[in-house]
Known about the structure:
Elements: E1 15-16, E2 28-31, E3 41-44, E4 59-68, E5 81-89, E6 92-95, E7 98-101, E8 116-117, E9 121-126, E10 128-129, E11 135-136, E12 141-149, E13 155-165, E14 183-188, E15 194-197, E16 213-219, E17 228-231, H1 233-239, E18 248-252, E19 255-274, E20 280-292, E21 310-312, E22 322-324, E23 327-330, E24 339-342, E25 354-363, E26 366-369, E27 389-391, E28 400-401, E29 407-408, E30 418-419, E31 432-435, E32 437-438, E33 452-464, H2 470-476, E34 480-493
Parallel strand pairs: 3-13
Antiparallel strand pairs: 1-2, 2-4, 4-8, 4-9, 5-12, 6-7, 10-11, 12-13, 14-16, 14-34, 15-34, 16-17, 17-19, 18-19, 19-20, 20-25, 21-22, 23-24, 26-31, 27-30, 28-29, 32-33, 33-34
Amino acid sequence: MVAALGGLPVAAVAQIPGGGPAKTDCYVEWSGITPNKGKNLDCQDGDPSCDVDTTQNGVCVLGVAVCVAQTNVAGCTATSIDKVTVKAKPKVVKLGSVKIPVTPPVPPLTPVTTPTCSAESIIRLPLKVTNKGKLKPSTKITLTSTAVNSVKPKKDKDVIKIRCVPNAGGGACPANPAGGPRELQLLAASAGTDLDNGWSGTSQNFPVVSNSELRVCLTGCTATSNPQCGEDEAQTNAVNGATFGPPLPLLAGNVPVCVMNSFAASKISGFTADMSTGVMGGSVNLSSGVFLSTSTQVCPRCSGNDVGQAGTCDSGARPGRACTTTGVVIVANAAGNKTYTLSADCPPSGTPAGRIPIGLPLTTATSTLSGSPPCPGQTQSLPAGCGTCGTACTGAACVNTTPTGACVDVKGGVSQNCCTGNTSIPCSPDPIVRAGSAEPPTPAFPDPTFPKTGNVTLAGTFCEASAGSPLVDTVAGLPGPGAILLPMAATWIQ
């Protein structure tokens, strides 16, 4: 965000040689999947290391590519790859009576003389279900790739077998030693979120992408006698991905930026949650990477055209890579297509113009930040010509309203306060106050039934340091204050 939520370097995609003779093993290799059973792959349903949709839903979604004429195998040189074929067997799997085609990756056009990778093909493998409802491994798919070089040795043939298997703990929190729920899952709501950055007003009233996820591994609480849950921070670090949600497309003061919301080293710390009341809070530690972009392509898109649908990235650091759309944002002031189907699998390319480290304090209580100015290094509190801050918003800062009557900014976030001198400009009063809320999850404690579900609003006020970029600092008004409202669906999982 020009904001509290951050950027991270994207690691190069690993190429997996087939394990044949070293002299030919660089001709064609697999990409997008990593063998974990010898030369083959058993992907646990919902394990984010291999299942693109990261959800235990009875189907593994895998992205598989082939890479040709690679340079990562010692003693192997591909002069010119003149022919590549990729085949899948069987060509169809079944989900009940529905036939699902197995489409192997389409190899690059030949001849190929420099390292080249195909786009990833999306392969869906449904688990089998017995008559008694027990989950069993999917049909095993055999992928075979063959590449022919222009000089001897002529041929390289790689084979990998892949299947989906029931989840046995992959990507999940471990059991709570006290016997209570093992995980608290929090998903950002599709409406009512709000992120304010800096004092200038141009980087306030942004939304948080819906379905952005926080996962907290729980400890200490029991199923029926002690509702007070603490956090297993090491396991929480392990189960959360690299980012808090997908990249966020923003136009701040007509400057298009794509912001990656990366977790810092200790992703979530000091989190506590009461299973009987829903009251919770802790620190989410982030690093905000701000990438300058264009108004026609503010962030990369995933071609999955709705939440939960798999596709491939259209641009950015991972074009052609498999992705699952986790949130949809309408950037009303963008040019061209204003709908952004977003995925953490599709980060922006290049180097961020600036980064902002933030310890984001979240609470279901009330969070307050006082002072004029309230933050270290802050030189100004209000936009030029603002007058005072605290009047109702109009114009672009209030293009419609929520069911409770709050103004919604054209950027998509909730308007809190505007300037008396110009009621379409957001501002931060003294003090800045954000109120969270909690509701008891159901079935109500001490009912031992799980999962339990409920809604919460996490609130936070905080200070943001310089982004290290004069442009970003000027547009956003940094160093300066930040504030967040984050309505979320809470699920307690045993």
